[in-house]
Amino acid sequence: MSKPFELPVRVYYEDTDAQGVVYYANYFRFMERARTEWLGSLGVDMVRLQDEERRIFVVAEVQTKFLAPARLRDDLIVTASLAGLTRVTFDIEQKIYRDSTDGDLLISGIVKAAYLDADTMRPKRVPTSIFGENQP
């Protein structure tokens, strides 16, 4: 098992509610950024994939546990790693930690993404070029 991909994120005023706590929907934005950067680190060019191959990734399901809040000016680490793979979907384990000496786990979740034909929106087989030859 390889180490999860990590993306540092700082919490800005625009990310918070009136109490200075990150608004819950913004955690999903942080997770989306980490997934996009993670796929890029695996060599996936999302623009080329859509424009030339006519393939896209879409989120099909999200399971999330909110464990503790992040606050204004917190530095966070958002992770992404492959947790499961079928022919047309893959599960991404994502976590958000406070980037500090205690490294509190704030959010834990699984995101199921589907691989689709961009024109028909029908499922397509996830190519082995993304996650390797050990796919179903």
Summarize the structure in words.
- With 136 residues, this protein is an alpha+beta fold.
- 21% of the residues lie in helices and 38% in strands.
- The protein is built from three helices and five strands; from the N terminus they run βααββββα.
- It has helices at residues 24-41, 46-51, 128-131; strands at 5-10, 55-66, 75-85, 89-98, 105-117.
- Strands 1-3-4-5-2 form a five-stranded antiparallel β-sheet.
- A hairpin with a 6-residue loop joins strand 4 and strand 5.
- The model has no long low-confidence stretch (mean pLDDT 93).
Summarize the topology:
Blueprint: E1 5-10, H1 24-41, H2 46-51, E2 55-66, E3 75-85, E4 89-98, E5 105-117, H3 128-131
Antiparallel strand pairs: 1-3, 2-5, 3-4, 4-5
The arrangement of helices and strands along the chain is EHHEEEEH
- Helical residue percent band: 10-25%
Main beta-sheet strand count, sense and barrel state: 5 strands, antiparallel
| Number of DSSP helical runs | 3
- Rounded radius of gyration (Å): 16 Å
| Strands, total number | 5
What percentage of the residues does DSSP assign to strands (E)? 35-45%
**What do the pLDDT scores average to?**
93
Q: Strand sequence of the main sheet, in spatial order?
A: 1-3-4-5-2
Low-confidence stretches: none
Name the shape in a single word.
elongated
Structural class: alpha+beta
Instruction: Quote the distance from N terminus to C terminus.
Output: 18 Å
